[in-house]
Design a protein that fits this description.
- There is one protein chain.
- By secondary structure, the chain is α+β, with helices and mostly antiparallel strands.
- It folds into two domains: 60 residues, no CATH class; 63 residues, Alpha-Beta Plaits.
- It is built from five helices and five strands; from the N terminus they run αβαβααβαββ.
- The chain has a three-stranded antiparallel sheet, covered by helices on one side. The chain has a two-stranded antiparallel sheet with strand order 1-2.
- A hairpin with a 2-residue loop joins strand 4 and strand 5.
- The radius of gyration is 16 Å and the shape is elongated.
- The protein starts with a helix and ends with a strand.
């Protein structure tokens, strides 16, 4: 647990909130290990990647595909599922439109949050976010470097 916790900076990979290593593993906010099986890993039949999660987040997720939520304070329209985007960019590289935003400022705030979140979700994936004009609105684009 300590090794995974240190590597993940004692943050839950699902909700991105801090995990207190001293809390009981019977407490919903306590630490647990989640075996992350991505589509790519399932096809290769390799070992699951272990990530730190709160007991409650891990239990709520169960055996379903994980969902990393976009924060409610960001003004984004039609946001893409973050885990799917990260998996595709990890496999193929390139760029993806991940959301629409009404203003460049909204896009800038969302871009800052997204790059920070992806850096913890997939530390080896080097990405940059751009806000591009498109059709009277702006597009939030995530691309690999």
């Amino acid at each position: 647990m300590d090794e995974v916790g240190e590597r993940d900076g004692w943050r839950c990979w699902l909700c991105d909130e801090p995990v207190d290593p001293s809390m009981s593993t019977n407490d919903p906010r306590g630490p647990s290990i989640d075996a992350v099986i991505t589509k790519a890993r399932a096809k290769k039949a390799g070992p699951a990647e272990e990530r730190l999660a709160h007991v409650g987040c891990n239990t709520k997720k169960g055996a379903k595909a994980a969902v990393v939520a976009w924060p409610e304070h960001l003004f984004v329209v039609d946001p893409a599922p973050i885990i799917g985007v990260v998996e595709r960019l990890t496999r193929k590289g390139g760029r993806e439109v991940v959301a629409r935003v009404p203003t460049r400022a909204d896009g800038g705030e969302a871009a800052t949050w997204l790059v920070d979140r992806v850096s913890r979700l997939a530390p080896d994936l080097d990405v940059v976010a751009r806000v591009d004009p498109g059709g009277g609105q702006y597009l939030l684009v995530l691309e690999t470097r």
